[in-house]
Amino acid sequence: MARTVIDIKGLVAGYRNGQEIAFRYPAFDAVAHCGELIALVGRNGVGKSTLLRTLTRLKPVLDGAVRINGRYIDDISGNDFARLVSFIPSEPAHASHTNVYEFVCMARYPYHGWFESLQMSDSLLVERAIDSVGLTNLKKRYIDNLSDGERQRAMIAFAIAQDTPIIIMDEPTAFLDLPNKFEVMRLLREQSLQGKTIIISTHDLQTAFGLVDTIWLMLPKGIKIGAPEDLVLSGILNKLVDNTPVYFDAKSGQFVYNQPFKKKAIVVGGTPTQHRWTANALQRLGFETDFTDSSADELFVQICEEEGKVQWKLGRGDRSPTFDSIRNLCLYIKG
Fold first, then answer.
1. ∠ at Cα 63 (59, 69), nearest 5°?
2. For residue 289, what are the domain limits?
3. 287 by DSSP, 3-state: which?
4. Would 296 be classed as within a structural domain?
5. Residues 164 and 294 in one domain
6. What is the C-alpha separation between 283 and 227, in angstroms, rounded?
7. For residue 67, what pLDDT is reported?
8. Cα separation of 270 and 175, whole Å?
9. Do residues 143 and 47 share a domain?
10. Calpha distance 135→138 (Å, rounded)
11. Beta partners for 41?
12. Which of 246, 278, 294 is the last residue of a domain?
């Protein structure tokens, strides 16, 4: 078993409005181990950001305790805490008239103070951090002139240069396109493999699924913890979408819109992959699909290959309409 880095006992996270508690999340226990990449998942308003801000001391603990390496977080000095935990909020970094290199250099100040010059070892660490996120060619560019994906990578470089054993990030893949989402997750995965303990909040469960070690699933009644596969097999992921027309399909590993099927379609021929995606399109049109030719009364689609090109034939006759794409097949059916 890997060493425990963060130990949470009976933690109640929330915030006050004056003297009154305006929001509180049910007490829970959890641990984060050395080298573990954890995704904090939950619906809007459940308290993900509040929990992360509690773990990083930006919000006070309402009850319970959080220990890092055996020390209660409130007993750790500010400077020592900055050497233990790096926190990247969900808001994009804005640093007017500051380029990438200067921005990442700021991560070293917990070790030296604001008025001390960085040493050669600090500069080398900054250079390595920038290189590790692929921004070496942009290190002289101002932060405010970067794209969203580049700015997010600069923030990860900041966390790497801070060289803390724990990195906590709030929605690191928000507003990024698909390649950048996977790139950010790859970078975080790489850091965890080097021994960092990383906790991120995310709505993008499917992107995180293949890369995180553990999910902390925040539900209204408390946190459920397990490997992604544990949560799939337990069926608990469907609690995330209670009272919605969405459900988690364990076979495909995706969240699916649960629509009633009023008609049936038979799909024959072609490869298993062609089967799957033809069925996917027909289901979107309200057809329950089957791959067994069982009834002449149902919609019948045959996938075949003519002169090296895949075609979709609608119906059983020789003169049945034939289409060169699933899109055109669906447009014909809808029409």
1. 75
2. 263-334
3. strand
4. yes
5. no
6. 30
7. 97
8. 38
9. yes
10. 5
11. 217
12. 246
Output the DSSP codes for 126-167.
HHHHHHHTT-GGGTTSBGGGS-HHHHHHHHHHHHHHHT-SEE
Average pLDDT over residues 230-256: 83
Phi, psi (deg, nearest 5) at residue 51: -65, -45
pLDDT band at 114 (very low <50, low <70, confident <90, very high): low
Spatial separation of the C-alpha atoms in residues 239 and 241, rounded to whole Å:
5
Number of domains in the chain: 2
DSSP, res 317: S
Q: 317 or 155: whose pLDDT is higher?
A: 155
Token pair, residue 176, equals: 């990024």
- Give the residue among 73, 45, 55, 44 at the shortest CA–CA distance from 13: 55
Q: What is the pLDDT of residues 188-241, one digit of tens each?
A: 999 999 999 999 999 888 778 888 999 999 999 999 999 999 998 898 988 888
**Which residue shows structure tokens 């290189």?**
131
**DSSP 3-state of 263:** strand
Say yes or no: 35 and 76 in one domain.
yes
Q: SS3 of 284, please?
A: helix
Task: Give the H or E element holding residue 54.
Answer: helix 48-55
Of the candidates 246, 281, 303, which is a domain's last residue?
246
- Please tell me whether residue 24 adopts helix, strand or coil conformation: strand
Answer yes or no: is 255 within a domain: no
Residues 242 and 298 in one domain: no
31 and 117 inside one domain: yes
Confidence of residue 295 (pLDDT cuts 50, 70, 90): low
Q: Taking Cα atoms as reference points, which of 216, 205, 211, 192 lies closest to residue 5?
A: 192
SS3 184: helix
Q: Which CATH number covers residue 289?
A: 3.30.160
Q: Do 186 and 124 fall into the same domain?
A: yes
DSSP 3-state helix, strand, coil percentages of the chain (rounded to 5)? Answer: 35, 30, 35
Q: Is residue 282 part of a domain?
A: yes
Identify whether residues 91 and 45 lie together within a single domain: yes
Pairing between strand 263-269 and 287-290? parallel
Query: Which residues is 79 bridged to in the sheet?
Result: none
For residue 116, CA distances in Å to 95, 103, 164, 285, 300 come to 20, 16, 20, 65, 75
